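Annotated sample (chain length 120).
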Amino acid sequence: MSSNQRPVSRGVLIRYRVMAYVTAVLLLLLVFYAVPVQIWGHDKRPEQIIGMLHGYLYIGYLVVAFEITVKLRVPLVRMVLVLLAGTIPFGAFLAERSMTHRWEANQRGLPATTAGNRTV
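Output written by the structure step:
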């Protein structure tokens, strides 16, 4: 491990993973259940409830995603993509995998750009 790279705690990763999964599942429910029910079933309640939950929890996702990307020294463009992943269906799942691989590389002391043979 280089002298300027410090291991990131497991708690940071767990917080991020929980928020990524919760945000992703709520967004999928919103897009594939609540919006169709609103459009074809003329019932706005599921969209209002799930939309509000996703919105508030997305703010929490932003906080923990920012924390892990800063601690793992993720480049700015990738950081923005990770932060926006909570607004794209399935995006948070992909970002979570990428950040988990990056965290694992951090724990092994590998450079931030490689995790085994994988580029993260």
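Annotation: Helices lie at 10-41, 45-71, 76-84, 91-108.
Annotation: Strands lie at 114-115, 118-119.
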